Amino acid sequence: MSGSAYWTREIRRADVRSPKDGAIKRLDRLRGVLRGVDPVVATRAWREVGDSLQRITDRYSR
Fold it and tell me: The domain containing residue 42 runs over which residues?
């Protein structure tokens, strides 16, 4: 089984359980991918993810 099939299946299963579990699996996948890139790029990507999550949180907390 290839790695991409594993993550696709795991994310799909987590989405069935709850949207939060699906999001957590997606972040786990992102963490694994960013582990292999330049630290500057990884830091920028995590910053963008954090900003996006903050906007989503602000939108739904109103």
Answer: 3-60
Contact criterion met (CB below 8 Å) for 49 and 26 = no
Read off the pTM: 0.73
Q: Which is nearest to 29 in space by CA: 15, 57, 56?
A: 15
CB 15 within 8 A of CB 21: yes
pLDDT digits (tens, 9 = 90+) for 4-34: 688 899 999 999 999 889 989 999 999 988 9
Structure tokens at 1: 């089984």
Write the DSSP symbol of residue 61. T
The number of domains in the chain is 1
